[in-house]
Design goal:
The complex is a heterodimer of chains A (about 120) and B (about 150).
Chain A: H1 2-15, H2 17-20, H3 22-47, E1 57-58, E2 70-71, H4 99-121
Antiparallel strand pairs in A: 1-2
Chain B: E1 10-17, H1 27-32, H2 38-48, E2 57-64, E3 70-74, H3 79-87, E4 102-105, H4 106-116, H5 127-141, E5 143-146
Parallel strand pairs in B: 4-5
Antiparallel strand pairs in B: 1-2, 2-3
Classes of the chains: A mainly alpha (about 120), B alpha+beta (about 150).
């Protein structure tokens, strides 16, 4: 069987087109391989939102007896709001008397009081 | 004609290691002062927390009625305890915002929030809200939250 396979492969090599157009075929193949790998890595980099790779064991959270260790899941299995938790919350402008205005005024008033208190210590 | 005042129930909030309630202080005097037989309470508490790893601090709310009968509710472990265990730190900072004790991922925050969501007094909240409270607790411990 092996002798037949060898002979078949030798025949194929003799008649294959890639011997005739060796350089072009090779470069296209390598280009394709390079492009695909670049796309893969950039896609992979875009996809990982978390610094915690999936499969990391989150210790200390299995506080029940006989509970298996809690493992980090892949990023897609977490709800989308999780990735916006650390970003400052944006309130849409609902016009005068709206929620956004109330929050803004409260923050400004609190900051003003803090500044006044600080100036009193000087 | 005034009705006789009904004596009020007494509430005792105490943090007890799961499965390790004993009549000794701090549990003993806290309950004994209100007329509860500490041995009874300890047996019932240990039975109810048998499914939890021994030693995990369990906040309990004990209601002592005027006729000295008691009932109690156990809650999930404190958020600070859970965060310290995941981050691997012993204590939080004395200066939150200025000192950093460790780093935690949003995935850790999510899992802690999932545990806290089992509490009865939190079940009306969205998981997102609970997660933001966990982030606040992490900040007060000096833990840096990283995505």
């Amino acid at each position: 069987m092996s002798f037949l396979a060898l002979s078949r492969s030798s025949i194929r090599q003799a008649f294959s087109p890639c011997l005739a157009r060796g350089y072009a075929a090779k470069s296209s193949n390598t280009e394709r391989v390079l492009n695909v790998s670049a796309k893969d890595t950039s896609a992979a980099e875009e996809k990982t939102l978390s610094s915690c790779p999936p499969g990391t064991i989150l210790e200390g959270l299995n506080y029940l007896k006989g509970q298996p260790p809690v493992i980090a899941l892949p990023d897609d299995e977490y709800p989308p709001w999780l990735w916006d938790l650390m970003k400052p919350k944006v309130y849409e402008d609902d016009g005068p008397g709206g929620k956004a205005e109330k929050k803004r005024l409260r923050r400004e008033n609190q900051q003003r009081i803090k500044d006044q208190n600080f100036m009193k210590t000087q | 004609m005034s009705k006789a005042l009904k004596a009020k129930d007494q509430l005792v909030r105490i943090l007890i290691p799961a499965g390790k309630a004993a009549p000794t202080p701090p549990v003993g005097p806290a309950l004994g002062a209100r007329g509860v037989k500490s041995m009874d309470f300890c047996k019932e508490f240990n039975a109810r927390t048998a499914h939890i790893e021994p030693g995990v601090p369990t906040p309990t709310l004990i209601t002592v009625e005027p006729d000295r009968t008691f009932s109690f509710i156990t809650k999930t472990p404190p958020t600070t305890y859970l965060l310290k265990k995941t981050a691997g730190i012993e204590k939080g900072t004395g200066r939150p915002g200025h000192e950093v004790t460790g780093t935690i991922s949003l995935k850790h925050v999510y899992e802690v929030a999932k545990i806290k969501a089992k509490d009865a007094h939190l079940k009306h909240l969205k998981l997102e809200s609970i997660a933001s409270t966990v982030v606040g607790t992490a900040k007060s411990l000096g833990l840096q939250v990283v995505p």
